[in-house]
Design a protein that fits this description.
It is a single chain. The chain is an alpha/beta fold. It contains 9 helices and 7 strands; from the N terminus they run αααββαβαβαβαββαα. It has helices spanning 2-17, 19-31, 33-55, 83-88, 110-116, 127-142, 171-176, 219-223, 225-245, and strands spanning 57-62, 74-77, 96-101, 120-122, 146-149, 180-186, 202-208. Helix 5 (110-116) links the parallel strand 3 (96-101) and strand 4. The longest helix has 23 residues, at 33-55. The two termini are 27 Å apart. 37% of the residues are buried.
């Protein structure tokens, strides 16, 4: 429980003490929105790295060389833990927001930092509003801001299993004309969810796969793009688990 308490205290202090910084970021954004997003991403990334350190997490990152640096991308990953976001943000080379559930838009202070790094808030219960969010995502990637989405729609609560990928999630890449980076996360639930409410030391593997360019796929594959990426991540997941956690 000590690690959990330390993380909660750290997070509360970080958010409170960051209020003056948010004001400075707001001022920067009035003159240079890109710089605001870049500096906010660096600050949030630093905060998340500190949380990972407090949790005692050893992070193994593979495939960084697969991430294009000359274009925005859509990161697509499996989702098992709250720590998936904490651990992945600092791995992204450019400004990257997350497609998060709409409830996160109610979190005091945190939602301001999320907006600064171009996170979007998705209403999964309202199809019309969900479509608006996807269209906003298309606009973001066209403007050069990468996004990360977990197309299972929610955290999967069963280890070594996957929920179906929602095909609509992939419209951001298709309509935005950007590549998809399959992101396989292995063992993140071992940090927290497997023994809630304790936070324990764990090794987590994050693997960035070869970019998938929707416009270069044949017509039939594009119709089931979600399944195509799902199969890649699932295959890679079990290969990595065998390699690192056997």
């Amino acid at each position: 429980m000590i690690r959990f308490i330390l993380i909660v205290i750290y997070l509360v202090l970080y958010l409170i003490l960051s209020l003056p910084v948010l004001l400075a970021e707001w001022i920067i954004g009035k003159f240079n929105p890109k710089l605001k997003a870049k500096s906010s991403k660096a600050l949030v990334g630093w905060g998340f790295r500190c949380i990972g350190h407090l949790a005692g997490t050893k992070l193994i990152v593979l495939g960084r060389e697969n991430i294009p640096t000359d274009t925005a991308v859509l990161y697509v990953g499996n989702h098992r833990s709250f720590f998936d976001i904490v651990l992945t943000l600092s791995c992204f080379p450019g400004i990257t927001g997350y497609v998060a559930k709409k409830e996160m838009n109610k979190a005091p202070i945190l939602r301001l930092w999320m907006r600064n790094i171009h996170c979007l808030f998705l209403d999964r219960e309202n199809i019309k509003e969900g479509l608006k969010t996807i269209l906003k995502g298309v606009e973001e990637v066209k403007n050069g801001y990468s996004l990360c989405i977990f197309p299972e729609g929610t955290r999967n609560k069963v280890n070594d299993s996957f929920l179906p990928f929602h095909e609509g999630s992939f419209k951001i890449a298709e309509k935005g004309g950007v590549p998809i980076i399959p992101m396989t996360i292995v063992n993140s639930a071992a940090v927290f969810e497997d023994h809630f409410p304790k936070v324990k030391k764990a090794t987590v593997v994050i693997d960035f796969g070869t970019p998938v360019y929707p416009d270069k796929l044949d017509k039939d594959t594009r119709k089931v793009l979600g399944t195509y990426v799902f199969n890649h991540i699932k295959e890679r997941y079990f290969a990595l688990k065998e390699e690192y956690f056997h």
